[in-house]
C-alpha cells in the first residue's frame, strides 16, 4: 500500500529533499535555541520505548543537532550509535558533541545500512518530511534485527492549523507545510509487516506573544514554509496586516496558539 493509493496524499505534496536538507543545514546553529517542543516530544518518545534488551547498535534517524543521539548514548552506554540525517550541516554541528560513533548523511527512504544491522531505530520529528512513509517503514524493517524496535514521532494534518486558517482568510495560498493524516500513518503501519505496539496522536499547543515570534521560531528551526507551489517573493505589508488581524482573532490568555498534532508510534520486527 502506498499513500497515493490511499488517496490521501497528492504527488508532490512535500518539498524537494534538497530544499529540506539545505533549510535544516542553514538552521543548525539556531535550532537548539528554539527547540523546546522538539526536546519534549523526543523525551516522550524515549519514555515510550518498551522494555527491551539493550541494543548492540542503534540508529538515530533524522538526528539533527544530536540531542537525542546523546540521550540514546547515555541510555545504552555499551551500544554503538549511528546518527543519520539528510542535512549535512546538522551533522557537522552535532559531531563535536559526540553521542554517536558514526555520523552519516543519508535518506530515511534509502538507508545506507546493512540488513539486520541495528536493534533500535529511533526517529523524532523528522519523518514528516518524507514523501514515502511506506518506504521508510520498509527500510526500518530491513535494517532492524529480529525483535528490534522502530520508535518514531512525527506530525500529522492539523499541525499549525491556526496559522493555516489565518492565511486562508487572507489569500487561500499554501503558506503552511502540509502533513499526512493520522489515518495514513495508521494504515501504512498496519500494512508494514512491523507489529504496532502503540500508535497515537497527542496535541501540543505552544503560545506566542505575536506572529513575528512564531515565524522567527519556524525559521530558526528550518521548518518554515517549504511547500511546492508556495508563494514566491516577499509578503506585502497589506497581506501581513490582514494575516495578523486574522490570527489575533484566535488569541488566548496565554498568547497566540500554535497547535502541533504529534504522532507517536512504536513498532516491533517480529522475525
TrEMBL record:
<keyword id="KW-0949">S-adenosyl-L-methionine</keyword>
<comment type="pathway">
    <text>Cofactor biosynthesis; biotin biosynthesis.</text>
</comment>
<keyword id="KW-0808">Transferase</keyword>
<dbReference type="GO" id="GO:0009102">
    <property type="term" value="P:biotin biosynthetic process"/>
</dbReference>
<dbReference type="GO" id="GO:0008757">
    <property type="term" value="F:S-adenosylmethionine-dependent methyltransferase activity"/>
</dbReference>
<protein>
    <recommendedName>
        <fullName>Malonyl-[acyl-carrier protein] O-methyltransferase</fullName>
        <ecNumber>2.1.1.197</ecNumber>
    </recommendedName>
</protein>
<feature type="domain" description="Methyltransferase type 11">
    <location>
        <begin position="59"/>
        <end position="152"/>
    </location>
</feature>
<keyword id="KW-0093">Biotin biosynthesis</keyword>
<comment type="function">
    <text>Converts the free carboxyl group of a malonyl-thioester to its methyl ester by transfer of a methyl group from S-adenosyl-L-methionine (SAM). It allows to synthesize pimeloyl-ACP via the fatty acid synthetic pathway.</text>
</comment>
<dbReference type="InterPro" id="IPR013216">
    <property type="entry name" value="Methyltransf_11"/>
</dbReference>
<dbReference type="Pfam" id="PF08241">
    <property type="entry name" value="Methyltransf_11"/>
</dbReference>
<dbReference type="InterPro" id="IPR029063">
    <property type="entry name" value="SAM-dependent_MTases_sf"/>
</dbReference>
<dbReference type="InterPro" id="IPR011814">
    <property type="entry name" value="BioC"/>
</dbReference>
<dbReference type="GO" id="GO:0032259">
    <property type="term" value="P:methylation"/>
</dbReference>
<comment type="similarity">
    <text>Belongs to the methyltransferase superfamily.</text>
</comment>
<dbReference type="InterPro" id="IPR050602">
    <property type="entry name" value="Malonyl-ACP_OMT"/>
</dbReference>
<dbReference type="GO" id="GO:0010340">
    <property type="term" value="F:carboxyl-O-methyltransferase activity"/>
</dbReference>
<keyword id="KW-0489">Methyltransferase</keyword>
<dbReference type="GO" id="GO:0102130">
    <property type="term" value="F:malonyl-CoA methyltransferase activity"/>
</dbReference>
Amino acid at each position: 500500500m502506498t499513500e497515493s493509493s490511499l488517496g490521501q496524499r497528492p504527488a508532490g505534496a512535500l518539498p524537494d529533499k534538497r530544499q529540506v536538507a539545505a533549510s535544516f543545514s542553514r538552521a543548525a546553529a539556531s535550532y537548539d535555541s528554539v527547540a523546546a517542543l522538539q526536546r519534549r516530544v523526543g523525551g516522550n518518545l524515549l519514555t515510550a520505548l518498551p522494555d527491551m534488551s539493550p541494543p548492540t547498535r542503534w540508529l538515530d534517524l533524522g538526528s539533527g543537532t544530536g540531542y537525542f543521539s546523546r540521550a540514546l548514548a547515555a541510555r545504552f552506554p555499551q551500544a554503538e550509535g549511528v546518527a543519520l540525517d539528510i542535512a549535512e550541516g546538522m551533522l557537522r554541528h552535532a559531531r563535536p558533541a559526540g553521542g554517536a560513533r558514526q555520523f552519516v548523511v543519508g535518506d530515511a527512504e534509502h538507508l545506507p545500512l546493512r540488513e539486520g544491522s541495528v536493534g533500535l531505530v529511533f526517529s523524532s520529528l523528522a519523518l514528516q518530511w518524507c514523501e514515502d512513509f511506506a518506504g521508510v517503514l520498509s527500510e526500518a524493517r530491513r535494517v532492524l534485527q529480529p525483535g528490534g524496535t522502530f520508535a518514531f514521532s512525527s506530525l500529522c494534518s492539523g499541525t499549525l492549523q491556526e496559522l493555516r486558517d489565518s492565511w486562508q482568510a487572507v489569500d487561500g495560498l499554501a503558506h503552511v507545510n502540509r502533513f499526512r493524516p493520522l489515518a495514513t500513518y495508521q494504515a501504512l503501519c498496519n500494512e508494514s509487516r512491523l507489529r504496532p505496539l502503540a500508535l497515537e496522536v497527542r496535541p501540543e499547543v505552544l503560545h506566542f506573544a505575536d506572529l513575528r515570534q512564531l515565524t522567527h521560531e519556524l525559521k530558526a528551526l528550518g521548518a518554515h514554509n517549504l511547500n511546492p507551489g508556495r508563494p514566491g517573493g516577499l509578503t506585502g505589508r497589506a497581506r501581513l496586516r490582514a494575516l495578523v488581524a486574522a490570527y489575533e482573532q484566535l488569541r488566548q490568555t496565554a498568547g497566540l496558539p500554535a497547535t502541533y498534532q504529534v504522532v507517536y508510534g512504536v513498532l516491533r520486527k517480529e522475525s
